[in-house]
Structures are given as C-alpha cells and as structure tokens.
Amino acid sequence: MTEELNNSEILFLYDAKKANPNGDMDNENKPRMDWDTGTNLVSDVRLKRYIRDYLESVKGEELFVTNRAEDAKDRVKQLDDGDVLDLIGVRLFGAVQATGDADHLTGPVQFNWGYSLNTVELQESKTITSSFSSGKGVGKDYRVKYSFLAFSGGINGLTARSTKLSESDVKLLDEAIVKSIPLNRTRSKIGQTPRLYLRAEMKDNETVLNDLREYIDLEYNTPEENVREISDVILDITELLDYLIENENKIKKINYWYDSKLKFKDDGLNKLLNQFSGSSNELEY
C-alpha cells in the first residue's frame, strides 16, 4: 500500500558573499539577474542540482539524473520497467526521458526560481586564465558582492502517490536542502551559507498556501547598497507569522532549521515557535 503524504510548503533562505550563485551561460556566465529590479536570480534546476549532488556523493544514493556518464538506453529501460522509482531523485523530482516516445513522471517536490531579497551589485569582473589539455583559456570571473536569496517550494501529496515518495524521503530532502550548499565548495560557489529552512506540513493533501516569500522582508543595519555580510541584515517575518496563524487550523507541523547568525526583527522566530509550540519540530544538523 502506498504511503499517503500531506502537502508541504517550503521556505528556504541562504546568502552568497563574493560568489556566483547561478551563472548564466548565455551571458558570459555572469550571475543571473533581473536587471529591472537589480535582484539576483537562481533557477530551481540549480537548487535541485545541489540536492541531487548531496544525495549521490554524501548519502550514496543512485540517481536517474547523475554526474556519472551512463548509457541512455539503460535509463530508458529503467523508466519503462518502473525500476526508476527505486531512485530517490525520481521519487522527489520526477523524470523525463526524451528518447523515442518520451515518458514523464511529474515530481511531487517543486521549487520556484529563487530571487534575492536585496538589490545586488556585481563585482567588477576579473580576467582569469585556465589550463586545459588543449592549451590555456582566458575568461571572466563575475561574482555578486552580497545576495540574500529566497526560495519557495512545495510537496504535492497527491503527486507523491505516483512516485511513491515516503516520509523518510522527505526527511532526507530536509537534510539535503540545509546541508548541500556548504558542501559544494567549488571555486564559484564557496561563500554561500544556508540561513533559514522552514517546511510547513499541512493536515491533508489538498490544502496549499501562498508563496511564503510574499510575507517576509529584509531590513538593514547599513545602507542597502553597502550590505556585505549577514550581520548587515535583519529578517522581518511579522507578516509570515500572521499568515501562518490565519491558517493554523490547516497546519499539522512546522519543521524548521535556522542559522544562529541570522537576526529576526522583534524576536520574530521565537514568536512563531511559541505560537506553534505544540506542533513545531527543530531539525538538528
């Protein structure tokens, strides 16, 4: 019998200091930006890549979308035979096989594109030289000065039936979201730190909430254009608390993790946890 899961709403915040959170290959690998608003963007695909890399390299999970080269025909056979549901990445995010008649499994875990809550400046690019077997290459190194990024997402309990997503899979997802980015210590990604993770589990698989980012805001200890450190920002979750209280009768549990360096306006986090004291679960990593 397939395990029944409830819907969940996810809020994930992390910051990037002198890093490139998500390079745009169509624009000299510059950090992705919304130039009209001056905000930094990160695709949902980039976040899923962090999670998959953690599951594969740290937890030893076999993946359908993997860093290891594999025969595409073997992956097609897996999809056709149904063995693909033995792979946690598919149970979380689904799978598409664009070979022949494409098969498609919609994943129950989905994210919106992330965006920064602050306006972001890019550092002046530096010319870098890289060595390859064919010779040396010259390129540009673009980074953000400081970006405080926010992702929202959710788990669809109804869709989870088709991929057989389990409670233990969801717990592993929680862990991977919090722990994966710091372990991705590549040259362009070092300097990124998770600050807050919140997953509100609903009481059923029909209830959904709005994008939780709509209810949070940043305040600054310094002019916004001078923000360079986590100590320069204060997170205001006053509206988020009000919104969650409005929907308290629909929420089964608040699962959360936070970094102690993140400061909250008016003791906002403790107020939230006190409100949900009987239905909150701190994730300890």
TrEMBL record:
One Pfam family named in its UniProt record: Cas_Cas7
Leader sequence segment: none
InterPro entries, per the entry: Cas7_Csh2/Csh2, CRISPR-assoc_prot_Cas7/Csh2
GO biological process: maintenance of CRISPR repeat elements
Protein name: Type I-B CRISPR-associated protein Cas7/Csh2
Organism: Halanaerobium polyolivorans
